[in-house]
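If you are new to this repository, start here. Below is one unmodified record pulled from the training split, so you can see the exact layout before writing a loader.
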Amino acid sequence: MKKAITLLAVSVSGVFAGPFTNGSFEIGPDPGGFFITLASGDTSITGWEVTGPNTIDLVGTLWQNSDGLKGIDLDGTPGTGGIRQTFDTMIGTQYSVLFDLAGNPVGGPVIKEVEVSAAGVDAIYTFDVSGKSLAAMGWVTKEFKFVATAASTTLAFRSLTTSGDWGPAIDNVRVSAVPGGVVPEPQTYAMMAAGIAALAIARRRRV
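And here is the target side for that same chain:
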């Protein structure tokens, strides 16, 4: 009986991850006017887990944030690192992830790279820090889309900027279902194809 209860608990926790939360990283440690370095495995930013191989920096008002008083430098002190969050999704539904991207302009390289991934899909985004400063970061909004393949999905951001401790910066992450973005399951496609074939046969008979 205990084993059955344990299995049920594991199953339920895997299905119900909770809604996406804290996209601007405002709930968690307070770096004030500086930054806090967080190591891989850290979960002090509500909803998020820091991933390796190294660290990230939670940056306060040291730079111009896109939304609120905090942002993330995916290259910590030292870099390189990433973050991820697992949240509830509906299988077969397409989701849009909007996030604001910039780069730490204090040091090189000039081009910062970040990989975004979810549900087996990944994409790489770049940001040029030329002419940017801590007071004028030049944030731009990017979009990433994926189709959910499970009842919960992990969204991950990972720095690909491996030289130096000044990496891609992210802030203001938003996740929403795309209106009408439900992808038919394979059996649905089969039924549609059968229906179309039946209509074609009916038309031929009428002629």
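Two things worth knowing about this chain: The chain is about 15% helix and 40% strand. Residues 1-15, 187-207 have pLDDT under 50 and may be disordered.
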